[in-house]
Recover the amino acids of this structure.
């Protein structure tokens, strides 16, 4: 028997009931947990919400993954020790896919949807530059673990970093090439779509020439390229004694590999963008006789460094790269600033971060200067027999 009313069958009414019931369930999920993608979640009164935007996928995925893993380790330690201000830290993470436009979108979501009180990120200067104005406009402190381009913190007084900057890094690289390697004629191959690469190339060239060296040639490429033989052939013709490649690990490793195929046997030198476990994996034996500037060495016998390296290896079964150690330090430093501020008020937290002096991180003693940059040492590593080896430390 089928009951009819106004031409509608019971089966149709059942479908309507199921639809209404489904909408009710979705609404309930939104209210109690922010479970549905795209919906924010309110902070538990016992939590401090921190946002992280990072390149978990895309061309610089190892950077973001290392930073994220180490940040998680730092937060775990902080929370196990009782948290901050009597509350646990909760990190909400957005993947920016290694794209500046996605970085801006990610930070907008974290601030407007999730109501985070501070932001950690990004590794790459180009992505930090895309997101920093949004943090500044909303009076949300942002601390970059490893964006070295000077322009990043120039965005405004809510923007900080815990790494050295490219004028210092460029000077370190130039002095190492000129004094330690006795190079007097150098060439440069830079990424023209990357603020980090452009800036570092400029600072290297300026200091190298001031020291008495000559830049015999410059060539360019763009992030994502995979054929560099034309540029390398042109550089080879200028007879350099060293080629400086201030890029990221993926392209840099391919550049060195293709250079060796062209019988270019001179040393290559890079910046901290080279510091990834993927560098030697991609470049293989071609990476012999190469060097790069970075923020720490896992071979450092300092007890603080070895404690971190041991814990990271135990948790993730790999040796932490520079982005891992900076991710760990940025988490610990931000927690310290929150404790000193005594509140998550944006202006007071900003002032506490700015007042950071001699913070003992794994990468050394960190002091935030008047330009909201970190004053700290740099390390030169060499690749020998397929492994990273410590060369020297340079103080600021």
């Amino acid at each position: 028997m089928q009951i009819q009313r106004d031409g509608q069958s019971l089966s149709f009414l059942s479908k309507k009931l199921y639809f209404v019931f489904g909408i009710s369930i979705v609404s309930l999920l939104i209210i109690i947990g922010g479970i549905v993608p795209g919906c924010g979640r309110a902070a538990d009164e016992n939590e401090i919400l921190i946002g992280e935007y990072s390149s978990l996928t895309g061309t610089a995925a190892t950077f973001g993954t290392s930073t994220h893993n180490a940040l998680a380790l730092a937060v775990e330690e902080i929370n196990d020790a009782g948290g901050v201000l009597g509350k646990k830290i909760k990190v909400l993470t957005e993947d920016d896919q290694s794209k500046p436009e996605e970085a801006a979108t990610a930070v907008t979501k974290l601030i407007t949807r999730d109501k985070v009180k501070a932001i950690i990120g990004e590794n790459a200067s180009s992505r930090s530059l895309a997101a920093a104005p949004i943090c500044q406009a909303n009076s949300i402190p942002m601390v970059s673990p490893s964006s070295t381009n000077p322009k990043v913190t120039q965005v405004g007084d809510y923007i900080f970093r815990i790494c050295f900057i490219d004028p210092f890094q460029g000077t370190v690289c130039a002095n190492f090439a000129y004094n330690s390697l006795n190079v007097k004629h150098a060439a440069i191959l830079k990424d023209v779509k990357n603020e980090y690469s452009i800036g570092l190339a400029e600072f290297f060239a300026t200091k190298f020439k001031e020291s008495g060296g000559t830049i015999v040639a410059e060539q360019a490429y763009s992030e994502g390229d995979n054929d560099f033989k034309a540029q390398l052939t042109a550089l080879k013709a200028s007879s350099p004694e060293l080629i400086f490649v201030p890029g990221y690990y993926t392209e840099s490793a391919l550049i060195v590999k293709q250079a060796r195929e062209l019988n270019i046997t001179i040393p290559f030198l890079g910046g901290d963008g080279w510091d990834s476990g993927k560098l030697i994996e991609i470049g293989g034996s071609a990476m012999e006789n190469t060097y790069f500037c970075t923020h720490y060495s896992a071979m450092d016998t300092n007890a603080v460094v070895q404690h971190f390296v041991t814990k990271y290896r135990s948790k993730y079964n790999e040796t932490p790269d520079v982005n891992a150690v900076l991710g760990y330090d940025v988490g610990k430093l931000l927690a310290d600033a929150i404790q000193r501020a005594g509140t998550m008020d944006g202006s007071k937290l900003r002032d506490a971060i700015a007042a950071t002096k001699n913070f003992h991180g794994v990468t050394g003693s960190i002091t935030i200067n008047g330009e909201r940059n970190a004053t700290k040492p740099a390390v030169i590593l060499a690749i020998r027999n397929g492994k990273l080896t410590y060369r020297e430390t340079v103080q600021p």
The longest strand covers residues 47-54. The first helix runs from residue 10 to 33. The chain is about 45% helix and 20% strand.
